[in-house]
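Lay summary. Proteins are chains of building blocks that fold into shapes, and those shapes determine what they do. In this project we predict the shape from the chain. Here is one chain we studied, written as its sequence of building blocks.
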Amino acid sequence: MKDLNLVPTFLWCLLLFPLHKAVANGVTPEETKQLRDEVREMFYHAFDGYMEHAFPLDELRPLTCEGEDTLGGYALTLIDSLDTLALLGDRERFTASVEWIGKNLRFDINKTVSIFETTIRVLGGLLSAHLIASDYATGMRIPSYDNELLDLAEDLARRLLPAFDTPTGIPFGSVNLKYGVDEHESKITSTAGGGTLTLEFGVLSRLTNDPIFEQVTKNAVRGLWARRSKLNLVGAHINVFTGEWTQKDAGIGTSIDSFYEYLLKAYLLFGDEEYLFIFQEAYSAAMHYLYNDPWYVEVNMDSAAIVWPLFNSLQAFWPGLQVLAGDIDPAIRTHTAFFSVWKRYGFTPEGFNLATLSVQHGQKSYPLRPELIESTYWLYKATRNPRYLDAGRDIVASLQYGARCPCGYCHISDVEFHKREDHMESFFLAETVKYLWLLFDLAVGPDNLVENGPYKYIFSTEGHLLPATPQISLLQEHCSYFGAYCNRDSLKEEPNASDKSADSQETNGSRVSEGWVRTRFPLDSSSFKASPVSGLIKGLCPGLTHAQKYGISYLASVDTPHEDNSAKKKNIVVKSQAIVVVSDQISNQSLSGDGNDNNVKESTEREPESDPSQS
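And here is the predicted shape, written in a compact code that computers can read:
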């Protein structure tokens, strides 16, 4: 997208200037340790406040030191905090919390709950804690634990399944945990609400050997993507019965954000290439039509006409996602722009108007969101640039002086006047302080489950830790994308015939990127059978093809007597647009495994006319 010249250049300079001035004095190593310890204290100030004044209600009212039920009335904040307790190494409270939940939590209740929020906060929290509490390798194994959280997770997910019974496969937005979908339930749901369920439900399928959970969520993603526009853009809200878009504003923020996030992360965690194909097309379209360097705007999904020149606070996750995709340069520029808004107000408002350079009317609040902090953590992990520690320090200062309340941390209802509101979302403990602590712990010299644990972890959109264990990341005993786990008996297994078939596919008028072919795995119980670790080796898989080593299937090349060798070099990285795998060349702490595996980047050939870098 060409520059829109929404504001004069000198106004941008005025907006960004305070940022450069403020970070002149870098964070020292000693200060980094102090900040890490300060963030730890922040967590316990809020967690202890919840346990003392609100538990077992869902969330804390930190100004009045009271509790309130906001989602389902089942100790939401405690469930959302479980893996943060484990990450901090708090064995005593982690154990006590898991045991209490196992004995007292039940979902056979007459409550209508959000599919999206219940999945990412409750289901994700239970699964993450189960995977930590049941595994000796995590160092937090609970001897008395007997899969109570997994049983609860499965029970909860089955109560959510009725929501998926729609003509499009896209779920209703809400469901009653006892009686199913109400006959008067709205048929309108958000794209994020229907497309941000794959990680939690997919992990559950692998842990229970029941494919139904993964199948329904994958069908939901397919249902959304099948209704994309000819520009490969999706809208914000859709009718789950008719498949008609009821709000056609396309963006990377509110109502759409985590749809993009889970496309890439589902591929990274499960190795399912269908998610990668969709992500590549969706990401390319977003960068072409939504990106107004360094900002992102909202456009009509059919015409690409701008409808909102607005920075939405939920957009702030995007630079972190770009790090995972390996698109670092635009991530750096966008983070700098987003953080300039934080510096201006001390927080990021829900909406910042790019045309007037002011807080959008009616969107002045900051509900302790983690997205900007999340991206700060990922960019520091990728670049080790100390300016991201400076940013973290500024964020800590804002939270301590602007949001700290007697029993926790308060919403900011107006970022211009720092007016406080008596509410603390559970995600403050699940994400906001988690990413801050990880940022400073990484700088000090990490000694935690994420950086030094036995597995590579994918963070859910709620910040829950989902490990790439063989049981989760291996499907039909293929090599795992992370760390290349292989079955000794199938090292020389031939690729499926389907992997050699198509030359190209046409989808809704747009071509699937050349160089890749979709591998379809049957959704039967055998596909999800857990593979015993004893039968696996870690590292490069001897005897396998390059494609098998990295969990990638290529289109079969056609050998001709006079084949031009230059044709084999057609996969060219398109500047700022090619989707690559994060490697050690970018990040010392990559997500793509150990050893030489980390140096591989995979890109796709793109049609010249659709190359976003040319716009």
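What the prediction tells us: The radius of gyration is 23 Å.
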